[in-house]
Design brief:
single chain, alpha/beta, Rossmann fold, globular
């Protein structure tokens, strides 16, 4: 396995970020949950409540053992459930992949990286603090910038527009493919396949 494959050789923790409950289900901020739901459909199972404070699903993707994790806490305090699940499954941060919304990418744009800053994303900040490191993998799903002078904090809690919703299933599918490429082939190969030219 190449050296830039998450958690080389063992199972991988795939985390989707979002806010719990039906009120937030269609929000841009919940795109991490949406991608995890697509991955869960590929694994072929249902999420179950776990003592870490997350919904989890164990299975296989891209020939790897994976644990899919959706924190049941609000986005800004995602770190506790993520660190709890990582500890329970004995997965160190190099085997953690976090899928999250990204304001600095156009709708549907994808960027994969290892480590780096949190870019003002409170969910990532909470995870970095709880894991004690920023060195985990991120899959950033572009949601675009807010129109006019709308506060980004309001924008992320709005649903996708009707135009975006037409393309959303395709983009979520593509993001799920990128996650599989990352854990199967490694970061460099996945970046080459999925980063816009």
């Amino acid at each position: 396995m190449s050296s830039d494959v998450p958690g080389a050789g063992e199972q991988v923790l795939l985390v989707g970020l979002g806010n719990p409950g039906p009120r937030y289900a269609g929000n841009r901020h919940n795109v991490g949950f949406m991608v995890l739901d697509e991955l869960a459909a590929r694994v072929g199972g249902k999420f179950k409540a776990h003592k870490s404070g997350a919904e989890v699903l164990e299975g296989r993707l891209a020939g790897r053992r994976v644990v899919l994790v959706k924190p049941r806490s609000f986005m800004n305090v995602s770190g506790g459930p993520v660190a709890g699940a990582a500890k329970f499954y004995k997965i160190d941060p190099s085997g953690v992949v976090v899928v999250h919304d990204e304001l600095d990418l156009p709708f549907g744009g994808l960027k994969l990286k290892l480590g780096g800053g949190e870019g003002g994303h409170n969910g990532l900040r909470s995870i970095s603090k709880s894991l004690g490191t920023r060195d985990y993998y991120r899959v950033r799903f572009g949601i675009g910038r807010p129109p006019g002078r709308m506060d980004p904090a309001d924008f992320v809690l709005k649903d996708f527009s009707s135009v975006e919703r037409k393309d959303l299933p395709l983009e979520l599918d593509r993001c799920a493919d990128a996650v599989e490429a990352l854990i199967g082939k490694g970061l460099t190969a996945a970046q080459n396949d999925f980063h816009a030219a």
